[in-house]
Amino acid sequence: MEMEKEQKSRILIIGVTGNLGFHLANKSIEAGHPTYALVRDSAFSIPHKSQILQTLTNAGAKVLKGSLEDLSSLIEAIQQVDVVICAVSAKQVLNQKLLIKAIKQSGCIKRFIPSEFGLDPDKVQIKDLDYDFYSRKAEIRRLIEADGIPHTYISCNFFTSYLLPSLVQPGLKSPPRDKVSIFGDGNTKAVFVKEIDVAAFTISTVDDPRTLNKVLYLRPPGNVYSMNELVEIWENKIGKKLEKVYVPEKQVLKSIQGKSSYIT
Ligand SMILES: NC(=O)c1ccc[n+]([C@@H]2O[C@H](COP(=O)([O-])OP(=O)(O)OC[C@H]3O[C@@H](n4cnc5c(N)ncnc54)[C@H](OP(=O)(O)O)[C@@H]3O)[C@@H](O)[C@H]2O)c1
């Protein structure tokens, strides 16, 4: 048993007080990886975050104080592990530059998984609507590759908790019961994956040689639905037909121009 544990890579996770990062830490511990978390000082004095840190510590994680802005804390943490997974938010993606420098300098990391966990930034283009994070995620990829850092990119499409609970209705927290807006013709398929499954999948890749220096697409066949299909499932569930308002693509683009986005 102990032997098996020793063979598992030691994983450092950055962002464990966040949504995906917490699941990553739990799945890493569950899978038997010695698990480390790099946490900013400020998190310890925020009650719900300190509770998360206590839960993870009780489960066996080793919490290290540090930050993406502090090179020495990064190097110190990196030197204790084999794999680094970063799960900072989309807005903070460029803050990984110092981390890349630390990984390069340390020279001991077998695998780096940068904060992506969405659509493939090298493939997605939304006309005039980059929100600065697809290009930033792509920029981080190029830095990793230029430094020759072993990596895996996780392209997992949409987290279920962002769009599904409202049936893709902006501003709602639960699915509508009378009227539903359908964007475009409603036939475009999307992939919805639970954060906890994204985390389990990510952890399962770290010691798998087939996943080295690859982009991995998480696309379970049973999780692929168009808006029209989702509406039909909901209608069948509540036993009622909804009024459907089709919003043409041009109008959608116009209405979201200049707004911040949940699409990552
Ligand atoms: N596919 C989708 O639908 C979808 C949806 C949402 C997000 N995502 C992606 O998932 C990834 C994670 O996003 P998330 O929403 O889970 O993030 P989040 O909940 O906002 O959590 C961000 C984490 O990063 C930590 N952090 C921020 N700056 C840091 C720094 N300088 N040093 C150390 N730690 C720092 C935060 O710690 P503190 O507690 O100290 O603030 C927090 O734990 C991102 O790549 C995002 O694009 C995808």
TrEMBL record:
Record-linked Gene3D superfamilies: NAD(P)-binding Rossmann-like Domain (3.40.50.720), UDP-galactose 4-epimerase, domain 1 (3.90.25.10)
Protein species of origin: Thalictrum thalictroides (Rue-anemone)
Domain NmrA-like, first and last residues per copy: 7-256
SUPFAM superfamilies, alphabetized: NAD(P)-binding Rossmann-fold domains
UniProt feature coiled coil, ranges: none
Descriptive protein name: Isoflavone reductase protein
Keyword set, alphabetical order: NADP, Oxidoreductase
CDD domains recorded: PCBER_SDR_a (cd05259)
Single GO MF annotation: oxidoreductase activity
